[in-house]
Amino acid sequence: MQPKEKILEILKEKHGEFVSGEYLSETLGISRTMVWKHIGSLRDGGYIIESVTSQGYRLKEIPDRLLPAEVKQDLKTDFVGKEIYYFDEIKSTSVKAKELATDNPEGTVIIAEKQLEGKGRMGKGWYSPPGGIWFSMILKPRIPPDHVHRLTLVAGVAVAEVLSELGLNAEIKWPNDILINEKKVCGILTEMEAELDVVNYVIVGVGIDANIDLDMLPPITMMQTTSLREELGRDVDRIALVRGILERFERHYTAFLKGDFHSILKRWREHSSTIGRRVKIVAGLRTIEGEAVGIDHDGELIVELDDGTVEKEITGTCYHI
Ligand code: BTN
Known about the structure:
This protein is α+β, with helices and mostly antiparallel strands.
């Protein structure tokens, strides 16, 4: 642990009590000047730390930011989120994740408070103001490229389950939108870098409209979008939420890598808002309309067309009609 993180840990353990500079310097084996510098850097990061001569330092407030030290605290994972890159603002966490993918381990997470050029599916933009949760995970699964779409379902199930535990009726619209009362609250973007039969890495980007006022959103998306603040009538603890999603994702992802996609599909079906609905699916230049009757063992949506024929779709844009 870096001295700065250690200082933060000690201050937190004291629950607002003063800790002397002398104690910190002795415990960490660094000079009082260095202690003071680290305190300064924590303050720059948004921590409110009071200092009083002859008493020392005390932590008064933890910033409402998805700081790595906060997310990592008590994070119960083996590899997801062990390495976190944090940005106040960035073009896109998924673009950054691709830059970092080769030299960073599986499970590395990139988080930002705000994205300037957030990416949505199908080449669309993704509006990402402060207050939301915008992060991407670097994964290096040893699976064939044509199984990568399954990871979208794994991530969708993880998010839907964690949101449901907040008391929300979180449902999954195929393939990967999380809806609350038919309005989108979260989108997932899965991208990969692969050769013909080898996946080099996969980036799973998750965007959640958490503590966001709907009137902050562009008018075009406002009608079909909701936020956790809107649904709950209060703000959510974004740190706890990210932690919960990383933990749940790792659990399902690990099972998936061991070959258990079956239980993901079962969970996906339980949260699905698409199955049993009349849908229009636009996949490239093709559009089909019919009833979504299920999802097969491979994660493909099964659609029964009006003439009774059955089509399977691996990906596309789905409209509930
Ligand atoms: C969708 O179109 O539904 C997918 C949206 C995915 C948005 C997330 S936010 C974090 C990550 N970084 C991006 O630029 N996009 C994804």
